[in-house]
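Example record used in the benchmark description.
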Amino acid sequence: MRVLAAMSGGVDSAVAAARAVEAGHDVVGVHLALSTAPGTLRTGSRGCCSKEDAGDARRVADILGIPFYVWDFADRFKEDVIDEFVGAYAAGDTPNPCLTCNEKIKFSALSERAQALGFDAVATGHYARLVDGELRRAVDEDKDQSYVLAVLTARQLAHAMFPIGDTPKSEIRAEAARRGLAVADKPDSHDICFIPSGDTRAFLGARIGIRTGKVVDAVTGESLADHDGVHGFTIGQRKGLGIDAPAADGSPRYVTAIDSATATVTVGPRDRLDVWSIDAERAVWTRGTVPDEDIDCVVQVRAHGGLAPARARASADGTAFTVELGEPLTGVARGQAAVLYRPDATRGDEVIGCGRIVRA
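Model output (structure tokens):
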């Protein structure tokens, strides 16, 4: 089988490519140049897709004895991922750029080009498993990335490979060292890859600008503070609210609502964060068919955490679904993904589908 190995320059994609070679596939490595500033260097565990990362990926390809190319996707990445990220925050939503990147870059633009060039599959270093076409959680629960892959369609999954999803991260590093790959001890990327400083508020502020508004108490309606833009807030946020004092009873306040139209941020007690139902749109059903009856499931609303037993119902046309929770979740925001898992013990294992949250 002809396999295109997406090589980020990290240890996970390096071992994924090595395993594809070892399995006897005809493998070609490709690094995606996503930065519009290609001279940018990585700083420790911050940032990715840098000049340094491209060099690391090339050295791994040399050791594996496979052809290697760099494909420039910077313009598309800016348009489909960065611009959408900024626009979502300006609208008061909380997007997940990793999910968008998987949807529109790694498993849309990249996979489409790979198939056009005659490749059968794209292999990546994601921590997830494919079992008979079903997307499942990785063996290493702490590293599981099935949440950010749940946006993939059945057709995209049919041309995907996740070679390391059956192995804990510690063993992946040990394997890389045994194979003589210099990236064995390279730090994992953290935070948002295109914000290497880690200062998301400053990044957004430079692109959205100042749009002043009020921070308002949910209980009394009192105006508590001014702010420079709703992009500096997300549902469930407790710190950085610009409020001088806690509530009258001494309890902390949390962001409970964001209205971008009026630039109003509402704060209140923790119990106002409890969510019992979720509406999601832009639904993707992993098996390619819309469920024709209610689904008992586990819903997850954040990449690491935010799980609850639930019952979901798809809309008639399958483009949306509603979730009724068996126990409340907190910190649920518009723009996040609601991913449905077929229940087993507690976390769920098989991905059923996902959608973007529009109401909670």
